[in-house]
Design goal:
The complex is a heterodimer of chains A (about 110) and B (about 120). Chain A is mostly beta strands and about 110 residues long. Chain A contains no helices and 11 strands. Chain A has strands at about 5, 10-15, 20-25, 30-40, 40-50, 55, 65-70, 75-80, 85-95, 105, 110. In chain A, strands 2, 4, 5, 6, 9, 10 and 11 form a 7-stranded mixed sheet that branches. Chain A has a 4-stranded antiparallel sheet with strand order 1-3-8-7, with no helix packed on it. Chain A is globular and about 35 Å long. In chain B, strands 2, 5, 6, 10, 11 and 12 form a 6-stranded mixed sheet that branches. In chain B, strands 3-9-8-7 form a 4-stranded antiparallel sheet, with no helix packed on it. The chains are: A mainly beta (about 110), B mainly beta (about 120).
C-alpha cells in the first residue's frame, strides 16, 4: 500500500531558484494538505485542497503556490526560493475535510542556500 | 483560533518507566483529537484518536482520554521501551464547521521522547 508518496526526498536549492514538490495519494481522499515542519514550531499548514479543483491558504502561504492537478495529485511550488523556506515539507491527505485522521508522506527535506 | 499546547521536552525516561505527555487544546467547536508519532527520518503516523468527550483512544500500549471539562488529551503509557523514542504530536481537527476557516489539523509543537535502556 503506497498511501501518500512525495518526491523528491531531499533537495538543495540556491536562493532564487524554483522547484515543485510532488505529492500523490492512492486512497481516494478528497482533502490534501501541505505542511512545513520547523524545529520548535511543530507543523504549520501552508495550503490545502478540500476537493479536486479547489485550493485554499493555510497559516503560512506566502512564497508558495499549489496545484490540485486531479484527485490524486497535489503539488507545491516555490517560485523563488529563500533561505527562510529551508524546512521539511509534508504532504497529507484525509477523507472527510480533515475531520478524520490524516495520512502523511515521508517528507521532503529542502535546504535553500 | 484553534490551538494545541503540549510539553516540548526533551523528555528522558528509563525503560519501563511510566509516561505522561500533557496536551491541552483550545477550539471553538467540537474537535476530534489525535496523537501522532514521528520516528527519526520518517513522516507522521497516527498513534491514536478520540472523536468525542470521554472517548479513550488506545494503541500499542498508549492511551489518551478526551476530557472536555479540562480541554485535555494527555498521552500515557504504563511501561515505555527504547523503541518508543520518537517525537509525539498532539493535534486537533474541528468537526461541524459550516464553512469558512481552514481545514486540516492544528498541531502542538511536538514532544521529543528519549528512552534510555
Amino acid at each position: 500500500n503506497a498511501g501518500v508518496t512525495q518526491t523528491p526526498k531531499f533537495q538543495v536549492l540556491k536562493t532564487g531558484q524554483s522547484m515543485t514538490l510532488q505529492c500523490a495519494q492512492d486512497m481516494n481522499h478528497n482533502s490534501m494538505y501541505w505542511y512545513r515542519q520547523d524545529p520548535g514550531m511543530g507543523l504549520r499548514l501552508i495550503y490545502y485542497s478540500a476537493s479536486e479543483g479547489t485550493t485554499d491558504k493555510g497559516e503560512v502561504p506566502n512564497g508558495y503556490n499549489v496545484s490540485r492537478l486531479n484527485k490524486r495529485e497535489f503539488s507545491l511550488r516555490l517560485e523563488s526560493a529563500a533561505p527562510s523556506q529551508t524546512s521539511v515539507y509534508f504532504c497529507a491527505s484525509s477523507g472527510d475535510r480533515g475531520r478524520t485522521e490524516a495520512f502523511f508522506g515521508q517528507g521532503t527535506r529542502l535546504t535553500v542556500v | 483560533g484553534d490551538s494545541v499546547t503540549q510539553m516540548e521536552g526533551p523528555v528522558t525516561l528509563s525503560e519501563e518507566a511510566f509516561l505522561t505527555i500533557n496536551c491541552t487544546y483550545t477550539a471553538t467547536g467540537y474537535p476530534s483529537l489525535f496523537w501522532y508519532v514521528q520516528y527519526p527520518g520518517e513522516g507522521l503516523q497516527l498513534l491514536l484518536k478520540a472523536t468525542k468527550a470521554d472517548d479513550k483512544g488506545s494503541n500499542k500500549g498508549f492511551e489518551a482520554t478526551y476530557r472536555k471539562e479540562t480541554t485535555s488529551f494527555h498521552l500515557e503509557k504504563g511501561s515505555v521501551q527504547v523503541s518508543d523514542s520518537a517525537v509525539y504530536f498532539c493535534a486537533l481537527s474541528e468537526r461541524g464547521r459550516s464553512g469558512g476557516g481552514a481545514d486540516g489539523l492544528t498541531f502542538g509543537k511536538g514532544t521529543h521522547l528519549i528512552i534510555q535502556p
